[in-house]
Every structure is written in C-alpha cells, then in structure tokens.
Amino acid sequence: MSTEIRPSEEPTISAPEEPVALPPEEPVTVKGTHTEPLEADTQDAFEQVKRVSAQVFDRLGETPDYLLSIFSEYKRPITVIGLVLGALIAVKMTFAILGAINDIPVLAPTLELIGLLYSGWFIYRYLLKAETRRELVSNLNSVKDQVIGRNS
Predict the structure, then answer these.
(1) What residues does 3 pair with on adjacent strands?
(2) CB 93 within 8 A of CB 101
C-alpha cells in the first residue's frame, strides 16, 4: 500500500500494483532427536537430581544452627532493630486508633474540651504561684530520681 499526501488535497490510498509472493514452505526437520527415551541419560539426570536435592537438604538442615550463631553474635543489634520496628508499629497503630476516634462525630470535640479544661486546671494548680511551681519542680525531680535509680 502506498499513501500519497498532497498539501491541498485529501490523502488517497492506492492498492499495490503486484501481489507479494511468499517463499514456498519447506518441512522443518530436527536432526539428532530420538523418539525413544535413553536409559543412560535418564539415569544420569536422576542421579544428578538426587545429588542436588541431598545438598539442598543438608544446607537446610544446617540453617537453624547458622541462625543461632548469627543471633548469638549480633544479639544486641538484632534486639535494637526489633524494638525500633515494634515502636514504629505501635506509633502507626496509635495514629490509626486516634484517626478512628477522630472520625466519631461528637467524640472529637468532647475530647478537645476535656483537654482544654485539664490544661486550664494544670495552669491554675501549678503555674500561677511561685510556691506551686516549686512543688511541681520538686515532684518532677523525685520522678526523675526514681527513673534514673538514685535515692531508691
């Protein structure tokens, strides 16, 4: 097929002048193939599969000992990585729970009101007077000493 496009005219499609001749098909033959199975090749392949599977099962049998040696050697970093992953999962779940609570229509504003009321009470109770600020600092220092381990 050929297409001719002239700038001011619509494109025209003309039929090919001669049909395309395909080469004659020749039968495909594969040399060296046998129609009957060879016993020696089958037996060799079977033996090879047995050897490979024995090696794989030996390696799999050594895996628990290998993992135990790795864990005993790198116990502290593995524990830290586990704790970090656990903390990330806990934070993700906390955000999901807070998002679900926030979607409840009346609950979110109620919790905000409770938070504002508690903040107002805390400011009134501990931050307005110098005497109550000293009491707050004293309480915080005693909690800090208990966490650190001093003066048990």
Answers:
(1) 13
(2) no
Look at strands 2-4 and 12-14 and give their pairing. Answer: antiparallel
E strand map for 41-103 = none
Q: Are 41 and 34 in contact (CB under 8 A)?
A: no
* Per-residue pLDDT tens over the stretch 87-116: 999 999 999 998 998 889 999 889 999 999
Distance CA 140, CA 32 (A): 90
Domain residue limits, the chain: 45-103, 105-146
Write b or e for each residue in 124-133: b if 16 or more Cβ atoms lie within 10 A of its Cβ, otherwise e: eeeeeeeeee
> Does the model's pTM come out above 0.90?
no
Interatomic CA distance for residues 92 and 88, integer angstroms: 6
Q: Under 8 Å CB-to-CB from 32, ≥6 apart: which residues?
A: none
How many angstroms separate the CA atoms of 122 and 114, rounded?
A: 12
Distance CA 6, CA 12 (A): 9
